[in-house]
């Protein structure tokens, strides 16, 4: 038993060790495999780098031709597209300057590169023609294959050649000078000719004044001489031809269209440096040594002339005369449907200039401005002028002014000069407080150290406000204008009337500055209400005056005032007649006199608040202050001082500080991005772009398809337009925005094209622009290729194609590791950080943001928002949880309101300060676990608090009374609840504290709330309208452009364009035989409790609000969302599944429902047809050539397939001819004669052998042996002389391409081919060889030879005879083997025979 146990343990040990060994071997193999794979991957990555290091010239040539061919093919496709547009009568009006320049240049480039491309198509022809073309690039290649240096050099050469003909043109103009009939124009033209002759450029206005000379004789195109037109053609870089006048007209037409395109695209100011040089080069100016401004000035003068001279256009105006048709013609011109030279051109604003310097007084709010001009383009041909203001003003603040600056400011103002003198009496206060803000306490502190003149702090404060802000300066009182005259003071008899004035225009700021003079003025008058008949009596018996009353107090406490007193007429008998208004007292009943107060006591009064000072921060929430002084009036005597603060501190916010800044692509008109996704095919088209336009024209995106479908989104006169066509018979009308786009403002556009409609949605509009498809567009599942930014001036922030964001950077090394799609080509793109406004997002029309919550376990959190509200009310922030608890932050009458709901308890707090609309606010909402307080902060100033302790206790009390707690540890909880002690009750509430307080449930909302949450909230919610600059969650900054943005439309949801354009994946599907599609979306691994958060979208809107009365059904089981679509053409389009996944709500998958598949053959496009035609032509040409060569080979016995065969006699004649031509190699004529005899003798022997061998093959060996013996005997008898070597050649030496040794004999009986009879030692060889041809027969005759050097001859003399003989035999043997065992050509055999003859003669 023990032995078995030991064996078992031993076996187990062995198995364990074997397993370990096996694992070790596997690991080593895996390491080796990984090492090999990594090295291979590294080798592949560095392959191009290694080739460039080892073969720099070859790689340079490869790059030149590979990049050049790509550029050429791209421009060729664009050229073909332009030709198609022109053939459709779209003209040049919709073409850009760059397209017209390409259209003008491509024919010349095509003719230049055509021979190289045709010859390179021949098999192996590219190995010859490309190096030759690389050596002569200017003659054999076009500009696509030139380097930058070559382009500059060749353009200079072309321009130099063109300028040679300027003199001829100038002489032709001079010759026709005498034929000008009108003297006035002739004098002007003579002056221009004189200026040109002296090398001075005439002005554009001088040329325009003489434009009539070119519309008639002598310089009209019809009147030019043949030589003059030829010189003009050469001056423009064109070749002379028979149809010179036609070529000149076409050249002038293209130049005019280029000029119009420059004007359409914003003028010369919108051209970059390269575009300026190219434009000047085309027009004959060398701009390589000119600055951009000089080129712009010259080109501007050219455009001025071009707009005023005869255009000689090919197409006339289509402007109708009928008024009814004229209105529709204007509309078509506005939309760009027709291209007419007479279409009105509306004015467009240029971009804003930079802000000017701040204008204003020191330490005072000033202003700065920026301007723009209506020149982009200028209005013409009854076009509308620009709408809006041409300038903008912005407040600014001038600070850091010193004493000298204020001395200049107060000059001429005595009050402020006196105040400045007071401040200078205390230099410490003056130097500091004039340059920065000083509170009243700082002045008091300054006077404690220095106060020679015993000034009070109040006086210095008033002087400071007077000097710095012109606030509260001493004002001397001035009289107001006189009031109107009063009624007569006597109702009967003579009296006085008066008028008064007050010292309040302006009122004095000090009792010592009262007005001087009388405030009262008298004038005699007479009353006419007398009841006394006798004019001498003062009063009648029926009436008497009462005593005078007391004087009233003086109207002014300080200074001169007025007081008055009265008396009454006592009537003894009152009459009740009509004349009861008469009086029985004669004289004055009212008296006024001037008075003044002896004890002048004046209470102080505050002046108005001064303007707000500068903000303490240039960005973000800061502080600012404003001041006032107790100078209206100044307290005097025992008057009371002013009550209240002298300085008020307020919050300010100039602009946001911390925003999420994206990198954008800047386009300058010559820029373009190209995307080619050959592995991504799609039938529908879905495209989103966010951009900022700076010019009124330009193409934002164009689907790269030469034929159909064609999709183009472009700017036309600041309108955003969409051109779509499905097939040649299905072209949709142009869709354009009804309103113009604001320049230099960020815009967004969503473009979709399906079988049903083309849709353009601009800036998240609720109702997009839609054009239904009335015909069958015949969309095909083609690869996706687009061009972005052609002729566009502005910036692009994001591009999304078919629900996948595209990268605007070319990053080849990252393509494998990332999912973004990269451009295949980028030209003249500048990448830079976007401006501040790019990060902003505008919420209006019920839009709101969804953002992911903080972790549920976090009990301390902070949310910070920077907003600028447009209205007084609106919901800003909403946080909720699954227990119906929520936090709401909103604006109510521009006061911040914070409200909390926990269970059944609600509490709220509102700010005391009222804020202004259209001002930035920094809002912070936070909760700290330690303090157990919910806190809101406004601009880092006012704080709002909600104490959560009381709320939790009350909520816990209510929940304790109304609910049964269900927790894991049930026994412990029940014991605690049943215990009536206070301590136990508090313990229970503490344990339930976490359940009572709100925890963010997955997402929170900014701006508004979804409809399904709004139903559960009794509070009235008003959507926020304004701008969101930034949102921070626990210090992390959100990219607002990446946030989900949506809004409520009744009981459904509509997404923003950007949110609807992002999806996890995109698939296209069709209806099958069941005539029904089931779309499936798997959104959760476990059973979800929130089914209302998962729904289907049709493009950007929930299907609940769209397909109410259709047979569309959907089902949600908590994990999978299904959608069933019956076969209906109206249901074709994009369907997205939207659900909460991975901490946020997103689009999981999007389906493109194409409809029913209809297999229709569509003909090939132009490019495919051209490629097939070229390939077939080359194949037919090659086959025809091979057939012809085969016929010649069969007919003549030689040709392309085989060489001519020589008989022994012909070989002998060839050797003899060679000897005759090279007698000097043998030394004498006798030696040559003997060599020729030997050759002929051997030829006869070989011929007889061939004839004999045909009859008796068995006697071959004997004859062969006899022949060898005879030859050896002849060689012994013949004296041997050294054979001189053939002259050396620098050409290559052809060697046998293989070594074949065969032991069996080979017999050929036909003497027709000149066959040689050989023995087993000497193989029979044919004169035809695989490595020879007629083209190299003569070359090999001279090249294949034996070379003997002087060293070998010397070595043969020094060696002993025996060794020499062995060496000679070995050499001979080797020579025989190399000559007989390898198939030799006739030329090689002739040389061999010549060398065999030489030893016989020695």
From TrEMBL:
Listed PROSITE patterns: LAM_G_DOMAIN (PS50025), LETM1_RBD (PS51758), TSP1 (PS50092)
SMART domains from the UniProt entry: LamG (SM00282), TSP1 (SM00209)
Biased composition (Polar residues): 1307-1323
GO MF annotation terms: ribosome binding
Domain Letm1 RBD: 150-351
Signal peptide range: none
Superkingdom per UniProt: Eukaryota
Matching SUPFAM superfamilies: Concanavalin A-like lectins/glucanases, TSP-1 type 1 repeat
InterPro entries reported for this sequence: Compl_asym_regulator, ConA-like_dom_sf, Laminin_G, LETM1-like_RBD, TSP1_rpt, TSP1_rpt_sf
The Laminin G domain, residue ranges: 838-1081
One Pfam match: TSP_1
Residue ranges of the region described as Disordered: 1307-1332
Gene3D superfamilies from the UniProt entry: 2.60.120.200, Thrombospondin type-1 (TSP1) repeat
TM region positions: 113-135
UniProt xrefs under PANTHER family: PROPERDIN (PTHR22906), SEMA DOMAIN-CONTAINING PROTEIN (PTHR22906:SF21)
Name the UniProt record assigns to this protein: Hemicentin-1
